[in-house]
Amino acid sequence: MTSDSQPTPHPLRPLTDEELSRARDLVVEKHAGDGVALFFRSVYVDEPKREELTEYLIAEHAGQTPKTRIPRQVTVLFDRVKDGVPQLTEEIVDVEAGEICRTKEFPAYCQTSYTAAEFGLFHDICVASDMFKTAMEEFSIPEDFTITIDPWPYGGLDPEEDVPRYMQGLVYARKKTDNNPDANHYGYPIPIIPVMDMATKNMIRVDRLATGGKGDSLYPSPPSDKPKELFTHGQSAEYAPELLDRPLRTDVKPIDITQPEGASFKVHSDNLVEWQKWRFRLGFTPREGAILHDVCYDGRPILYRLSFSEMTVPYGDPRPPFQRKQAFDFGDGGIGRAANNLKLGCDCLGAIHYVSTVVANPEGKPDVAQNVVCMHEQDNGIGWKHTNFRTDRAVVTRLREFVIQFIATLANYEYVFAFKLDTAGGITVETRATGIVSVVPIDDGKVSDYGNVVFPGVLAQNHQHIFAVRIDPSIDSYSESETAVVLEESHPIPMNKETNPFGNGYEVRRERIESAMYTDAEPKVNRTVKMENVNKKNPISGKNVGYKFVPNATQLMLADENSTQAARAPYAKHHLWVTGYRDEELWAAGEFTNQSKKEEGGVKAMVERGDWFVDTPSASSEKGQRSHPVVWNVFGLTHNPRVEDWPVMPVEIHQFHIRPADFFTSNPALDMPGKKNETSVLLSCCGKTESPQTNGEKSGSTQADPLTHQQGTGDDIDPKKLQNGNGATDKENKRKSTTLSKIFAWKKEST
Amino acid sequence: MTSDSQPTPHPLRPLTDEELSRARDLVVEKHAGDGVALFFRSVYVDEPKREELTEYLIAEHAGQTPKTRIPRQVTVLFDRVKDGVPQLTEEIVDVEAGEICRTKEFPAYCQTSYTAAEFGLFHDICVASDMFKTAMEEFSIPEDFTITIDPWPYGGLDPEEDVPRYMQGLVYARKKTDNNPDANHYGYPIPIIPVMDMATKNMIRVDRLATGGKGDSLYPSPPSDKPKELFTHGQSAEYAPELLDRPLRTDVKPIDITQPEGASFKVHSDNLVEWQKWRFRLGFTPREGAILHDVCYDGRPILYRLSFSEMTVPYGDPRPPFQRKQAFDFGDGGIGRAANNLKLGCDCLGAIHYVSTVVANPEGKPDVAQNVVCMHEQDNGIGWKHTNFRTDRAVVTRLREFVIQFIATLANYEYVFAFKLDTAGGITVETRATGIVSVVPIDDGKVSDYGNVVFPGVLAQNHQHIFAVRIDPSIDSYSESETAVVLEESHPIPMNKETNPFGNGYEVRRERIESAMYTDAEPKVNRTVKMENVNKKNPISGKNVGYKFVPNATQLMLADENSTQAARAPYAKHHLWVTGYRDEELWAAGEFTNQSKKEEGGVKAMVERGDWFVDTPSASSEKGQRSHPVVWNVFGLTHNPRVEDWPVMPVEIHQFHIRPADFFTSNPALDMPGKKNETSVLLSCCGKTESPQTNGEKSGSTQADPLTHQQGTGDDIDPKKLQNGNGATDKENKRKSTTLSKIFAWKKEST
């Protein structure tokens, strides 16, 4: 209970330098004198418990002073290293009280994500090791190449495997072209994978890779007597403009996106964002990147929390050791940790607001990750339109979107993530996959069933990306028990005299999810997930107010049910999971994915717990508890690479749309002004702009645009002859086509 | 053979006024003195035969003078009315030779699309008729309302029904608010449907509509003794800004999209368009709207023709006469005929090129439909990106798109269609559904299984929109026999010691389509349609060069297999059809959809013909002929309306992507310049623009952005304190986060 006149700081405010330092110092102090070294992995805010935060939010939105002051807790994750043995430890620190309130020590098999420092370490020790040098003697590499290693997670353990914290490296050569460190080494993979013990810093072994093609063995052939000559083809795999084997296009004219009157959004303190009736708090975590808290529209809550939770990238090459090639880019890496420092005019166009975040360096001290999130408005074409055919009056408004974007680089690969709020009350969740596909060597001239040859000697392996988005709804209420999840489907009704005499009728079926479960997308019945408030009805339709989305029926994980790949990511085997809410449960594949053999504490475990969402549980659900439903939407892409994905792949875009369903009493974008944009210009045939006087206002000539033009000369049309009419009215243009409005103008409308 | 020095006019050049008049005059001349009246329906270019056009295109692209001069033929479709009986007739006129070369008279049951003139006629005769007046006596309507009728296609005939050309009307009242003709009458439906014989101009009957709710009869109740009072609730259904029940938003700041150096595309004569290595000829037909002919990239053909072919909108309300409520917006209406006259700065933002078209009025004389297509470039976010984690060097390019857009109004409803070419060699086909949902009356206070109450007394019926896109490929060759269609799928391999010892392997299966067939989308196996050139291999991968798309597994038509709705549109029952090419076969549901009982000459008939695509047909295909494969992609939306879809629905967007698959030897967008856009600006927290000096160049402060800001005051942050760093380098900012590049900078890379 705070009684002073200072406003209570918002529990979702971002971490500060001072808080981070304070938490770190308290941890250092606690462990001082133990004879241990501390290796800091990450420091971030411990999110408030839902019950406490909900109470706060209700008061906040009611304009009241929240009664409870939520303790400010910070999580410090670190290795406590004694006698060379690291103990992964988590201390939750109350930075205001100045005390450690909770300590967790994790079992040795729990491997948290790698840090940048570990990556650097791996590289140095590996290249200096005799084991690596010996392995490299198998190959002869042209003199103008240098060795480069991409450190990678060791991946999932085989059932019989029991190893400490390992890291492996994908080995490449880089052409020393112009001494340019941005030459693309991924064009020159070398068929070995060194493995290191991260605790002892010892090289464990060097795995050798099979390099055969169709019909060849799954296993590597023994080394030949003399070094194998690599990289003799001389072709270019470069993408950096100064190294490119072709000139850059010179005919891409700039598109400028400007907001001369400023943007329509506001960013307040404590990362409160307001835009076009939307309001949310932006969060950012080392693992998830940007997250949206307390998403409201016009003062009504919709989502308590929206986040990307996990993504796994299983590779479909059956040759060992590629069964271990399965990245968990959130659990093994961390999208927030890997977030790009975004650049104005490159990553984001227009009027942009950037957000930075405080992170811990290996000593646990604060650093700033600059511009990890960008926010801006954009135009996405027509939002709604209707033309009255009687009067020819068109009312047209644009679809305006507010984009929250962040980008992560995971070694070779890039992901662009975005949440897009729009003026029609919708939320689009978008992923773009780009970057460089992961490649392995293949013998010259061979092709493979396991991937595509995208460059001489380079096999881009077939793989999948399977994303999980966590949606914690608060549909028009912060109460945990008011939200229901309903599956709505459209089914045919067999033709029958009583209810469907002509066979055109179909039926909408609804089924409320009563207990934790999973299911799949089913477009055959248009399966739609509705998140509804069971107590609030739409005054027009009488139905529960809600938001809905249609899960995309993208391909699920292909790996065999009994494989380690599948066991590590059961979430990737179904499109939709509905689980009972528990504080701190944010991870679709569980907290520790790195070197896991199977999921622990992910959505599968949550479902097995048997929580229920109705007042009276069914018998089978009795072991869990009455819970608030959390929805996990799983989608992905099967990526059998194209040559066009080389050397950097064009974005592959996936989206799903969370849209209001009887949440409002009419189109929420109805009050969008249909104002004509005054800077748009008419172009003549040849890309040249018309003189301003003819910009749609004074035009009216019906001659000489391409479709009515008559001379088949093959030459460009003289731009001076091209003044296309735009919006010409009947008065201005007697040769306007016979439209309905004209017909109706001829008649006298009945009155 | 042309031997003069004049270049041969391009066979895909648009129709001219003169050609249209000439064709019409020749038809009038032919029928003069027959004692007949001619009612002109449409006049358009008769597209050249594929064989002839192909020969021309090959010569054109080789820079040679085409040997054959293709006859210039124009189709004139008209009613030849004798003694009040119309005979639908098509004359193909050679406008250069000045002769009619072909005449087709259609059987009486073939009903072509309605013209605007017919719509106007219906309205006048109906409201003046005693039959309509008597029917209206059942209702009492407030004095400030006037009657308005939307003419509609009569729809599919029931099996036993045999009627001449009919039209029906949906009857509404319109509030005479401010005498504004744009008041929304759709909020006030009246439960009768008048039906007229279009030949005799006689009213046939007035159907009465059931207005009950859940559990009520499928059939209308008999009229009560005294008139039923309608529209007493007084609520507003308006969308026109001047009539709106709420103020327009005033905080939507403009987004200006400008191209100060002009656009990057060129439109030449004979509607040749060039943009960023793309080249195509734009066509426009009364039925399809815009179509793309001869789509090439970097001189290599990809698609011979790309078009929207049909869309059916079946309604799922089983109550008669709604079994007939099934629009075919291409066959019954015509997207080109219904195309909007687009407005600069409203329908299209930026630097826009408009295209108009010549159409025939009811007298067969030329009119111009202004600005029916707009073309422009747009930015669609990041196109490809890679950051080298060692150097922190990001190379990022934008995804530039070229949009060909057209919009059609079909009474209450709008569709926005677009083809989008992009810099990565991709083609996106997009539809946006908007406009006013079709509604019927429902008794006050009732709800229905057949739709949603979106306004008092107004039921928006459940329905579907099912689109067919016709793709005629010419993959790297104009030769008809070189293109193959292949289904490629990714399948799990059961775990087994020999080929998949760890269970992570999966298999890519290919099956060439050998004869005409249909199938469905199957995301479970990632079913992908590849259009390949069987003779041209990608020099890198060794695979056939190709383009591919993944058919979306959207819900197919729900109507019972034995229903008239299903019989009229078999195409809507499967996602993918592959048929043998024949000239003039462009229509998924056949040429005549209006009042059809079943498809004739649509994709079902084409498949049944049994054409084959390989040199040696299988036994079952022997009845057809060796053909070039044409691909039809079917997708749609099941639209069970939301209250948010009222009064004008926010766009519902559907897309599919035709993308290169080993067509190129690397990412075709590799040469896109990653030039920084100089007009993008930084925003402080409050939507205000930073002063230009701080635009990303001189910034470096790491303080005081929302996520690092520390004072929880609840007030806005002072914008002066907010100068977010952007692109700060290590030199400029010592508190940059611990990134890999820093780690690697610490180490000396092995050489």
From TrEMBL, chains A, B:
Source taxon at top rank:
Eukaryota
Q: Which organism is it from?
A: Xylaria flabelliformis
PTM per UniProt?
Topaquinone (TPQ) is generated by copper-dependent autoxidation of a specific tyrosyl residue.
This chain belongs to the protein called: Amine oxidase
Q: Where is the composition biased (Polar residues)?
A: 690-713
Broad EC category: oxidoreductase
Identify which residues the record assigns to the active site. Answer: D329, Y413
According to its UniProt record, what is one Pfam family this protein matches? Cu_amine_oxid
